[in-house]
Backbone:
């Protein structure tokens, strides 16, 4: 069985290294290489490779966007190559999709290639369900905004989501605490919660959401409630209703 391979990476040095590693592997035909996502998309459709070594981080059109733009019937097997990206690597692990974290060793490269070859033999032309599930997961993640829009006094402000420490309900509004300031957004807490990453922003009370990255400690209070202490000293109430969900998110810390 001959495996036709396409190499996609915006770094020429990285492409050359993959090419050198493939040169010593039997049954491999290098169909081509690309330095950006747009060329990769066209090459996959034109060359129909069996396997693509695909860089995740590329300007304009990254590796995940390339795959998302492809018709499922033309989806090749993929080995992702990436500089360390915590979320991406975690997603690859969950969906059992092969990836190589740069700089990778020859042994790790060969293992990924062997796994891909084995899957190609079993797949018989069908779309890899794990790859499709990965794309759905990452698409949902990317659909969440990086910034929130705040309109006040005729001006428009932008709040970076990663800077948000906690959010409290104020009726039909939500007060967002980010850095040393707070902003009022015309949306309910439930509506805002649906736009945020549930792994990062946890509901700890019917009127409070907290960014777990800013949680310093949890202190027992009374009647099963806890006090959530943030790194800036802010103290918030964790009610019993949300205790189990928070405990699971924090590794059963309660």
Residues:
């Amino acid at each position: 069985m001959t495996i036709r391979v396409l190499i996609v990476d915006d770094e020429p040095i990285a492409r050359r290294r993959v090419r050198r590693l493939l040169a010593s592997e039997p049954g491999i035909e290098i169909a081509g290489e690309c330095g950006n996502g747009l060329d990769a998309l066209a090459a996959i459709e034109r060359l129909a490779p069996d396997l693509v070594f695909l860089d995740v981080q590329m300007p304009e059109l990254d590796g995940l966007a390339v795959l998302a733009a492809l018709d499922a019937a033309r989806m090749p097997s993929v080995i992702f190559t990436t500089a360390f990206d915590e979320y991406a690597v975690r997603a690859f692990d969950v969906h059992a999709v092969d990836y190589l974290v740069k700089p990778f060793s020859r042994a790790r490269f060969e293992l990924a290639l062997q796994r891909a070859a084995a899957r190609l033999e079993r797949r018989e032309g069908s779309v890899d369900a794990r790859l499709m599930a990965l794309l759905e997961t990452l698409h949902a993640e990317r659909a969440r905004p990086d910034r929130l829009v705040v309109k006040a006094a005729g001006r428009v402000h932008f709040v970076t989501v990663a800077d948000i420490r906690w959010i409290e309900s104020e009726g039909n509004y939500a007060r967002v605490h980010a850095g040393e300031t707070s902003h009022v957004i015309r949306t309910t807490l439930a509506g805002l919660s649906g736009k945020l990453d549930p792994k990062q922003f946890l509901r700890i009370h019917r009127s409070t959401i907290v960014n777990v990255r800013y949680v310093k400690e949890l202190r027992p209070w009374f009647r099963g409630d806890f006090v959530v202490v943030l790194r800036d000293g802010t103290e918030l109430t964790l009610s019993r209703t949300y205790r189990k969900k928070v405990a699971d998110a924090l590794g059963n810390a309660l």
In short: The chain has a mean pLDDT of 84. The longest helix spans residues 106-123. The helical segments are 12-23, 37-47, 63-69, 86-94, 106-123, 129-142, 189-193, 243-249.
